[in-house]
Write a structure and sequence with these properties.
Layout: H1 5-9, H2 12-32, H3 40-51, E1 55-60, E2 70-78, E3 81-89, E4 100-110, E5 113-127, E6 133-137, E7 141-144, E8 154-155, E9 162-167, E10 186-188, E11 201-206, E12 210-216, H4 217-220, E13 229-238, E14 243-259, E15 263-276, E16 283-287
Antiparallel strand pairs: 1-2, 1-4, 2-3, 3-6, 4-5, 5-6, 5-7, 8-11, 9-10, 9-13, 11-12, 12-15, 13-14, 14-15, 15-16
């Protein structure tokens, strides 16, 4: 006569076997598999960055807005110090030895830990034999994951409802920008008869803090380098009023990336909002709300 199923469940042999399996699993996890100890990530991170050619955005450690001073590519490791080639420069020349920095990069997973940033410090610069500027960074510290985007982006699905005009000048330049008599240097999804420039690209996305554009290289030249200032006019269609509403911004180039078909993907950050002065047609700048 066979054993009842309830008797099997209550069998001390079954529970003993289950306990043994659990004990073995605990021993494997805690003794046989490698475990990270404090400081291990800092030790293995430099070589991982070099081996995978990771690009870093460097900003002052105390800058909560994380305005990138420069973008670099990790090309070498000296001990645990990082040797980096400068890809885009918007202010690294202002750094002095020992200046604390925050390095941010695309999220990666290392030893089971998700990372996208670490702290470091400026340790010097040099010029390679191929004339490419390089910077040396102190060993990474405090690696971790910190959300980078403060403003959520909205993808521009139908470009006919948003237009942009760009003036490649500083908003604080003496000559300024007078919309009535100053032709834009580039129009996107728009046409300005004064400059004769048809659409020079497309608008990719927009947020409260900035806009992403794809622009033709031949039309922007050197005007869209990281850190460059410009004046931007956005015209967005109001479905309620059935007309285009105009917005003015003092902007700065925060990122530039190569894109297909001889174009550049350019990220602009809004710094100030502009209001047109009806008296003389000039723009008056105010901090963003």
């Amino acid at each position: 006569m066979g054993m009842d199923f309830s008797e099997v469940l209550l069998s001390p042999w079954l529970w003993g076997a289950a306990g043994l399996v659990g004990l073995l699993a605990w021993a494997v996890v805690h003794f046989l598999l490698p475990r990270l100890r404090p400081g291990d990530l800092e030790k293995i991170l430099p070589e991982h960055l070099r081996r995978n050619g990771v690009v870093l955005d460097l900003s002052p450690a105390q800058d909560e807005a994380r305005h990138a001073l420069t973008r670099v590519l990790v090309v070498g490791v000296r001990g645990r110090w990082l040797l980096c080639e400068v890809l885009e420069d918007a202010g690294s020349h202002s750094l002095v030895l020992g200046d604390p920095l925050r390095a941010e990069f695309r999220p990666l997973r290392l030893a089971g830990v998700k990372l996208n940033s670490f702290t470091t410090a400026f340790a010097g610069e040099e010029l390679a034999t191929d004339r490419i500027p390089r910077v040396l960074l102190e060993p990474p510290g405090d690696p971790g994951f910190h959300p980078r985007r403060v403003q959520s982006r909205k993808k521009v699905v139908d470009p006919q409802f948003i237009r942009a005009k760009l003036w490649f000048v500083s908003p604080d330049s003496p000559e300024g920008v007078r919309p009535a008599d100053t032709a834009p240097h580039l129009a996107v999804n728009d046409f300005d008869v004064r400059s004769g420039q048809a659409s020079g690209g497309s608008i990719l996305n927009i947020s409260k803090g900035g806009v992403g554009l794809e622009l033709k290289k031949s039309l922007v030249g050197e005007h869209c380098a990281a850190g460059a200032s410009m004046v931007l006019n956005l015209s967005m269609f109001s479905f309620k009023g059935k007309h285009f509403k105009s917005y003015w911004y003092a902007a700065v180039v925060r990122s530039v990336e190569e894109a297909p078909k001889d174009t550049l993907r350019v990220g602009l950050e809004f710094l100030r909002a502009g209001v047109e002065n009806p008296a003389d047609g000039s723009l008056r700048w105010t901090p963003l709300a």
